[in-house]
Amino acid sequence: MSIILHDLAGADPDLRFSPYCWRIRFALAHKGLPVETIPWRFTERDALAFSGQGKVPVIQDGGKTVFDSWSIAEHLEAAYPTPTLFGGAAGKAHAAFINAWADSIMVGGIARLIVRDLLDVIDPKDRDYFRSSREARFGQTLEEVQAGREDRVAAFRESLMPVRLVLRRQEWLGGAAPSYADHIVAGTLMWPSCASRFALLTEDDPVAGWFGRMLDLYGGLGRAAKRA
Ligand SMILES: N[C@@H](CCC(=O)N[C@@H](CS)C(=O)NCC(=O)O)C(=O)O
């Protein structure tokens, strides 16, 4: 039986752009687990009531409901140990750092570059909620947040230096093979890659080269994704 994944969708139900849901899409593919995705929009609170909270990703695996991407990764590793996502306790501890870094530095940096673009791809019924909740969070209009991004994108690219330095020494963040650390960073980059046409990475950036290899994994899962 397939695992069910409640997955953020845009106005186009095939446009899936949540950085957290993509981490789980990659993790499921890594473990070879079949998945059925159910499109979810920001204002469909009732559809997640069974999980006791209001954010995606949420998975239903047999009788078990799990939300929060890190908790889902932990569940998958415990329930389906091979192939491993973390490579043991030390690998999991290091992936926890990557997860925290991606959630703060990467997600925060990317949001300031593409948040107004998101308004154009989300479902029209979500637009008022999205604008008011994000403008309250930033204390600025979405247009103000995104303004001047051409001048600011270099600083975002600079923030990826730790990834670049690791990829100089090894092919994957996981070392000789991809691991959940790769899924976290690539899943986060799927967000702008799917929802915006603004180029976050330059083509000659080793991070872009690695992201291209990530897109090709698992039968080209990331490359086949619908893009805005
Ligand atoms: N820490 C959570 C974050 C999940 C999250 O923020 N999901 C977003 C979609 S990308 C969401 O559902 N937001 C609902 C909202 O903003 O109302 C995780 O890792 O899964």
Would you mind describing this structure in some detail?
By secondary structure, the protein is an alpha+beta fold. 54% of the residues lie in helices and 9% in strands. It folds into two domains: 77 residues, Glutaredoxin, CATH 3.40.30; 132 residues, Glutathione S-transferase Yfyf (Class Pi), Chain A, domain 2 (Up-down Bundle). It contains nine helices and four strands; from the N terminus they run βαβββαααααααα. It has a four-stranded mixed beta sheet with strand order 2-1-3-4, covered by helices on one side. Helix 1 runs parallel beside helix 2 and helix 3 packs parallel to helix 8. The longest helix has 33 residues. The chain starts with a strand and ends in an 8-residue tail after the last helix. Bound molecules: glutathione (GSH). The site of glutathione has 12 residues, from helix 1 and helix 2. Glutathione (GSH) binds next to helix 1 and helix 2.
